[in-house]
Amino acid sequence: MAEKSTKAKSGGSKSGGAKSNALQKPLQPSKELAAIVGDGPIARSEVVSKVWDYIKKNDLQNPENRREILADDKLEPVFGKKKVTMFEMNKYLNQHLK
């Protein structure tokens, strides 16, 4: 029986691979987002990574609540407001990718 469950798990990983391909598909960032990540097509996962690099480099996490990101002049047009949580961030980034 252990073999059957192993086969089922390996079959499930194939669909997981399809999901990672969607994350790797190059998308065009808006001009606002391009100011942070560059203007060429870029994978969604790479966008998130570059935005986090930018946030850390510019010390934009709220020191009192590290889950909050305090937008500077470049991030505010992307987020549409001065403060977002790390959990909201992807929602706003998706609006700037085509």
Provide a concise account of the structure shown:
The chain has 98 residues and is mainly alpha-helical. The chain has a single domain, classed as MDM2, CATH 1.10.245. The chain is built from 5 helices and 4 strands, in the order αβαβαβαβα.
Query: What is the 3D shape?
Result: globular
- Helix/strand-derived class? mainly alpha
* Largest sheet data: 2 strands, antiparallel
Task: Report the CATH topology name.
Answer: MDM2
Query: Which runs of at least 5 residues are low in confidence (pLDDT < 50)?
Result: 7-17
- Helix count? 5
Strand content: 5-15%
Quickly give the CATH architecture.
Orthogonal Bundle
| Head-to-tail CA distance between termini | 46 Å
What number of structural domains do the residues give? 1
What do we call the CATH homologous superfamily? Answer: SWIB/MDM2 domain
CATH class: Mainly Alpha
The H/E string reads: HEHEHEHEH
Helix coverage percent: 55-70%
Mean pLDDT: 86
Strand order of the largest sheet: 1-2
Care to count the β-strands? 4
Rg calc:
17 Å
Descriptive overview:
- The chain is mostly helical and 98 residues long.
- It has a single domain, classed as Orthogonal Bundle (MDM2), CATH 1.10.245.
- Helices cover 55% and strands 10% of the residues.
- The protein has helices at residues 2-24, 31-37, 44-57, 76-79, 89-94, and strands at residues 26-27, 42-43, 68-70, 83-85.
- The strands form two sheets. A two-stranded antiparallel sheet has the order 1-2.
- The longest helix has 23 residues, at 2-24.
Element layout with pairings:
Layout: H1 2-24, E1 26-27, H2 31-37, E2 42-43, H3 44-57, E3 68-70, H4 76-79, E4 83-85, H5 89-94
Antiparallel strand pairs: 1-2, 3-4
